[in-house]
Amino acid sequence: MAHESTPQFQTFHALRIKGFAAVDTLVEMTSLSTDDVELALTRLADNGYTQFRENRGLWQLTADGRAAHGEHLLADLEGLDVAATLRTHYQSFLTSNSKFKELCGDWQLRDGEPNDHSDTAYDESVVERLSALHADALPAVTSMGEGISRMRPYSNRLVEVLAKVQTGETKMFTGVMCGSYHDVWMELHEDLILTQGIDRSAEGSF
After folding, report:
1. If I label 174, which of 43, 61, 116, 165 is the partner at 20 to 30 A Cα–Cα?
2. 3-state DSSP percent of the chain in helix, strand and coil, to 5
3. Is-contact 22 55, C-beta < 8 A?
4. Are residues 115 and 24 part of one domain?
5. How confident is the model over 13-48, as pLDDT tens digits?
């Protein structure tokens, strides 16, 4: 049985990972309904943990929310052996992460210059390498979701966004704040860092 989280914590945790986000983004990250996410955000706001930036249409954590998240994360993980659940999969992820960072560089630059994506053959070769990395990494990502339910959406999200990259949506490889493969991958990495209580700077796994 996967370790279950409440909709309120899933929303709280997704916003902690993202920093600031629209409701639709949080729905995508959690696979919750819009009603569940909006209710969770309202309750979190009542506790002083979230605030809505009307001019940007985005929710974000308050300073109190960021401070309180760690305590709520510990409560969410109570009774779960996190190390046993994630350690092996995380080591596999880190191996893939090193390769992914190299791939992102190759996608953004070509011969030391910004890649304008005019060379179809070059782009296709990088996408093929991404597809191979994805195939290698997906079993570990899927297994994470089998152990911790709130991590289930990552595998489907990676599958869906890879399909967009493969059909020529160039921004969906390394684009920022657009639900790109890079966005989802970095959210997963941040989730793994937070869930395991890892010091990212000490580990050096950016």
Report:
1. 61
2. 70, 10, 25
3. no
4. no
5. 999 999 999 999 999 999 999 999 999 999 999 999
Q: Is residue 41 part of a domain?
A: yes
Return the bridge partners of 60, or none.
Answer: 20, 51
Domain carrying residue 179:
82-203
Q: Pick the last residue of a domain from 76, 94, 129.
A: 76
Same domain, 86 and 185: yes
Tens-digit pLDDT profile for residues 80-137: 999 999 999 999 999 999 999 999 999 999 988 999 999 999 999 999 999 999 999 9
Q: Which of 71, 67, 61, 189 is nearest to 137 (CA)?
A: 189
> Both 70 and 87 in a single domain?
no
Rounded alpha-carbon distances, angstroms, from residue 24 to 2, 36, 103, 124 = 25, 12, 28, 31
> Rg for the chain (alpha carbons), in Å?
18
Q: Which two tokens stand for residue 46?
A: 């009542």
Instruction: Please report which confidence band the pLDDT of residue 205 belongs to, taking 50, 70 and 90 as the band edges.
Output: low
Do 50 and 131 belong to one domain?
no
